[in-house]
Amino acid sequence: MPGPFPSPTPEALNSAVSLVVAFGLGTLIGAERQYRQRTAGLRTAVLVAVGAAAFVDLGMRLTGGDGATRTVAYVISGIGFLGAGVIMKEGMNVRGLNTAATLWCSAAVGAFAGADLPLEAAFVTAAVLAGNTLLRPLVNLIDRIPIDESATEATYEVLVTTEAGSAGPVRDLLVGRLEAASYPVSGVAVEERGEEVVEVVATLTATAVDSRELDAVVAELARQPGIRHATWSVQTGD
């Protein structure tokens, strides 16, 4: 006499194995994130991996390989929206990019597991853990290297504060001094800083400069009549 519950089918057992693999590998990734006290920790990584595995497995169960392929595409785009939620901008700094990338990789692990490729899922997990752990000493070493401004691609601006009535002559003087120092100007903007004071901002065409040369140009400009203040700034590229 048959029992009260039907026996699991081979397909159901296969799905269970995929989910277990995704759960286990997602736990490895999430444990490292939890230890680092990141925004998306253990539970998030596990849920992303299990969810991706479940959707890919469902696509395979319904329409075979074609269904799994379409499901993977939707999983990738969906995880992109989820990853955007953990990225935060604080002033000029952006936080959470590594956490978002880790979630993206967790989804890849789950997709491999859902597609019945557990060995490949393990390889991706190992690569993610290596990237988040073994590369940390290299990142710290690179961050400690002093920045050579002459070799750094960045946007350089020279700022001069003057009276509103002197904006035109000061603008010409600023451009002339920079071009004489072999730093061509790509654009000049005049920004109001009150009713009587303006700031003339010259953006350099060069992506790398010698800081000592700019210091000399700025010091010379600061000594000119009508100029209240002169300085320069740099903003590094992405």
From TrEMBL:
Domain named MgtC-like C-terminal: residues: 156-232
Membrane disposition: Multi-pass membrane protein
This protein's record includes keyword DNA repair: no
GO molecular function: methyltransferase activity
Transmembrane domains' residue ranges: 12-30, 42-60, 72-88
Pfam families, A to Z: MgtC, MgtC_SapB_C
InterPro entries, sorted: MgtC-like_C (IPR048640), MgtC/SapB/SrpB/YhiD_fam (IPR003416), MgtC_SapB_SrpB_YhiD_N (IPR049177)
Principal cellular location given in the protein's record: membrane
Role summary: Virulence factor required for growth in low Mg(2+) medium and for intramacrophage survival. May be involved in regulating membrane potential by activating Na(+)/K(+)-ATPase.
UniProt record similarity statement: Belongs to the MgtC/SapB family.
Protein known as: Protein MgtC
Gene source species: Methylobacterium gnaphalii
